[in-house]
Automatic annotation (TrEMBL):
A motif (DGA/G) lies at residues 163-165. A motif (GXSXG) lies at residues 36-40. It comes from Candidatus Neomicrothrix subdominans. Residues 282-305 are annotated as: Disordered. Coiled coil: none annotated. CDD domains: Pat_hypo_Ecoli_Z1214_like (cd07209). Keywords: Hydrolase, Lipid degradation, Lipid metabolism. The keyword Lipid metabolism applies. A motif (GXGXXG) lies at residues 9-14. This is Patatin-like phospholipase family protein.
Amino acid sequence: MTTAFVLSGGGSLGAVQAGMLAALEEQGLRPDLLIGTSAGALNAAYLGAHGYSSESIADLATLWRGLRRQDVFPVDPLRSVLAFAGKRASLCSMRPLRRLVDKHLPITDLGDAQLPLHIITTDVLSGEEVVLSSGNATTAVLASAAIPAVFRPVDHEGRLLIDGGVSNNTAVGQAVALGSDRVVVVPAGFACDLSEPPGTPLAALAHSITLLLEQRLIVEVAHFADQVEIIVAPPLCPLSVNAVDFGHADELIDRAHADTRSWLEAGNEHLPHQARFLALHHHSHKHGPGPDRSDRFPPLVDEVM
């Protein structure tokens, strides 16, 4: 049986995947190939390059615990103003993220990974999904993580590529096309328990993308459920951490590890697929109408005038 691990995107919520993978490893679930998108591409590339083991998963968790927002999303007020004025092509520079990837990825070419490694990206001009299985490893990971407007498209062998989540967040279909008999989806999830909307444009954009990706995950998994065995690790729920908040990695990793381990020990991966993943989030939102916060979000007409 060929088992593919499919790691989805989710910004700083990619930290949960380190906890989920640790629990899967403890239960003897290991991949024959890795497929990653966006933050999941970084995690997949790290594990594919270093060799998939409990030690490399622990090292990946240590990496996430040490990350800060400026390591990934360096916010420069002047650059932001210039970007909105059309003088810059993106809100953030990709230099810090490139340094991070270069530092922690000990391979030059994706083909040198110790496990077959496939990175999902999107051609910004055609919208076509582009699966990278060879070629420059750093460029591939950066392209998969290039959120539109946040980062500039990445030139990879003559094609301008952006975040793979634009065309295919979970890539279950790619796992099936590659001949996998079993697909283990390791989702980053989304902040399903916020008490108020994100307060910055970057946070709002990231949160909106994770909402979209969650819905696409449900549809894609349901579509392929009768073709291959699919296991979806349970997303953290309730969760109130935004996808650009890197200050909660310890909590995210520890919770994901505990929740996934309990879920597996209870045998939930063997439930019929409808019960297993068509309702990935199970809590009732605890927030009612709440206090009036309209002063924080004035009517659009005030901004226009």
